[in-house]
Design brief:
Length: about 500
């Protein structure tokens, strides 16, 4: 029997009003894992009502006490780490070591945000007037709509939910339909830790019905969305005057200079390009390589790629797991055809694969002699495909790096400090790594991009700013009407009688 899961509204796991469900499939073997509710706009309305009812209580709940709940949640996540990791590998396919890292990231951000319950810093400044106190306080936004992707099914929800909670918001959470079980298990842990009923509400279902209803709902005052640029544009147009945070993907590059440690760069390219089967917004899908070491680095890269083993991510021998579904494989293969037609040279991979006749696998793919304006060098493929682009100078490399619509992650391998610091200064991206891959963000620093990647900043203190508002407060204890910018010449202080 395949288990059927409900949606969470007001602290109760219930069925959708639609009466319909959808299957969740293991991408490594195509077996159905479980059934989930096909939510509707009416389900969203019920969830919003529950969130609105809980908002006053949660807003007034002391922030340090909210932090205690999050700290308990982090401890529960730590105890449940292996189970959640194995569940994640079955649900979305990433190899088990990466799945453990995904859960660890959720543990880390939950612990971090628990500590922010005793800070929630703002500013206190001097007034231009005598006997007047000036400060600011941090307040909740209200009800948030959180819409997350499938590729980090525990980590990315944790980046949104934990700061939203510590800031005193309630929320409607719509996880990706490819990974709803990880989301449900994460929310159950938050419930067990003590998050009150109605503070978190979870509705599964399609983006066209559930996601759209969340974005447009008049009582939802904030939206946090991670996903495709196209959907991000829809959110921008339809959200209205909400607080909106968007993280919309990338076309990230690694520069490999002629003075680089090539073995180190090789490790970074393999990890950046084929980790999570290339299905990361921070994936390194472009390698911008100095022409002097291009041939040597190509040979090194091809040799390593050919040794990568496809398979079920639960097997310790697997290096590269499946893509999320059949449509993803079709998209990756379509871009292989585009690259060949554009004149790029296919060095290896470029074909779908099956393991025992099943699974959504694609062989790690490498193109070389790619021109910067080719589609495979401009558009987000979201699969295990790397384009090598030769350059002659650092200036040219940075121009190529910046010559895309996105601006999320970037990296340079060099042993020249001048190269490194010029890149840090000039590369147009929210993240730059030196002698490391495009992957590896830590939860106490901001995460997000610029340009077509959007404008969200999650994790670290930026996560608090993303999920809260600031109110300025002025306390005049002079006993007279003081008009700022008018009565700004201080006179003698009046003596008390």
């Amino acid at each position: 029997m395949v288990k059927e899961y409900g949606i969470l509204i007001g602290g109760k796991w219930v069925k959708s009003n639609s009466g319909e469900t959808f299957d969740n499939v293991n991408p490594a073997n195509e077996r159905v894992i479980a059934k989930f509710q096909s939510g509707t706009p009416d389900d969203v309305n019920r969830a919003v009502d529950a969130a609105e009812k809980a908002l006053g209580y949660w807003r007034d709940f002391p922030a340090p006490k909210r932090g205690e709940i999050l700290l308990k949640a982090a401890q529960l996540l730590r105890k449940d780490k292996e189970r959640l990791a194995r569940l994640m590998t079955m649900e979305m396919g990433k190899v088990i070591a990466e799945a453990r890292g995904d859960v660890q990231e959720a543990i880390d951000i939950t612990e971090y945000m628990a500590g922010e319950g005793r800070r929630l810093f703002t500013q206190t400044t001097p007034s231009e007037l005598r006997d007047k106190f000036c400060t600011s306080v941090r307040i909740p936004v209200g009800i948030f709509g959180l819409i997350t992707p499938w590729n980090f099914p525990v980590a990315i929800p944790s980046w949104k939910i934990t700061p939203a909670l510590i800031c005193g918001n309630t929320m409607i959470f719509k996880p990706a339909s490819d990974t709803p079980l990880c989301a449900i298990e994460f929310v159950k842990i938050l419930e067990k830790a003590g998050v009150p009923k109605g503070v978190i509400n979870l509705v599964t279902g399609s983006g066209s019905k559930v996601g759209s209803a969340i974005v447009k709902h008049k009582k939802i005052r904030g939206i946090s969305f991670t996903g495709s640029r196209e959907v991000g544009e829809f959110v921008t147009k339809e959200a209205g005057l909400k607080k909106v945070g968007l993280e919309l993907g990338g076309k990230n590059g690694i520069i490999v200079m002629d003075d680089a440690d090539l073995e180190l760069a090789l490790d970074g390219v393999i990890w950046g390009g084929y980790g999570t089967t290339g299905q990361r917004c921070t994936a390194a899908s472009r390698v911008i390589v100095h022409h002097k070491i291009k041939a040597k680095f190509e040979r090194m890269l091809v040799s390593r790629i050919k040794r990568l083993r496809l398979g079920d991510g639960l097997k310790p021998t697997t290096d590269v797991g499946p893509q999320i579904n059949a449509k993803a494989v079709e998209k990756t293969h379509e871009y292989t055809g585009i690259g060949i037609k554009e004149g790029a040279k296919l060095l290896c991979g470029g074909k779908p694969a099956k393991i025992n006749g099943k699974g959504f696998f694609y062989r790690p793919t490498l193109f070389t002699d790619v021109a910067p304006d080719m589609r495979i060098a401009q558009e987000e493929i979201f699969g295990p495909s790397i384009s090598m682009i030769p350059v002659k100078t650092l200036d040219e490399a940075i121009d190529v790096m910046n010559g895309i619509i996105y601006g999320l992650s970037s990296a340079i391998y060099t042993n020249d400090l001048k190269n490194a610091f010029e890149s840090i200064e000039r590369i147009e991206a929210g993240l730059t790594y030196v002698n490391s891959s495009t992957i590896g963000a830590e939860v106490h620093l901001p995460f997000g991009g610029i340009k077509g990647t959007g404008h969200a900043r999650e994790a670290g203190w930026a996560g608090i700013e993303e999920f809260s508002d600031v109110k300025s407060v002025y306390v005049d204890y002079s006993g007279t009407l003081q008009r700022a910018q008018i009565d700004n010449v201080p006179g003698p202080r009046k003596k008390r009688k």
